[in-house]
Amino acid sequence: MSVPESLLKVAAIFFDIIFVLLVAYVVFIFGIRIFWSFKSKRLKGKELPETKEFLRLKKGKGVIYIYAPNCKPCKLVDPVIKKLSKEIKGVPFVRINAAEDVELVRKLGVLATPTVIITERGRIREILIGPVTEGTIREKLK
């Protein structure tokens, strides 16, 4: 029993379309990641906006944690931030809900959640986009 040639052509076109869509998706995801890393490099050294939330970050090191309540990766990072804020004394932690403080998030130039911003003397020193581990944050705070 042989398969009709027209059915083989349709199947080949179908698999070609699936392959093109898969490649486009991968290129899109990597493109977004490259854009985020480029944007975050441009933000390094930038001074924090003059707001009451950031007053305690003007001296020494600090951490800004930007999250969204419905973000799954944020739910993984949230316990890490809470634990570190209790353990590391002398380093202020500021939590910003991106859904409620949209204007402040725009001022910071944040594109995705979760984002952890390490500050030093009121300036952005490091930006960590996406889920990060406790060890990574500790290392960046040294």
Automatic annotation (TrEMBL):
<dbReference type="GO" id="GO:0005737">
    <property type="term" value="C:cytoplasm"/>
</dbReference>
<dbReference type="InterPro" id="IPR013766">
    <property type="entry name" value="Thioredoxin_domain"/>
</dbReference>
<dbReference type="GO" id="GO:0015035">
    <property type="term" value="F:protein-disulfide reductase activity"/>
</dbReference>
<keyword id="KW-0472">Membrane</keyword>
<keyword id="KW-1133">Transmembrane helix</keyword>
<dbReference type="InterPro" id="IPR036249">
    <property type="entry name" value="Thioredoxin-like_sf"/>
</dbReference>
<feature type="transmembrane region" description="Helical">
    <location>
        <begin position="12"/>
        <end position="36"/>
    </location>
</feature>
<feature type="domain" description="Thioredoxin">
    <location>
        <begin position="29"/>
        <end position="142"/>
    </location>
</feature>
<dbReference type="Pfam" id="PF00085">
    <property type="entry name" value="Thioredoxin"/>
</dbReference>
<protein>
    <submittedName>
        <fullName>Thioredoxin 1</fullName>
    </submittedName>
</protein>
<keyword id="KW-0812">Transmembrane</keyword>
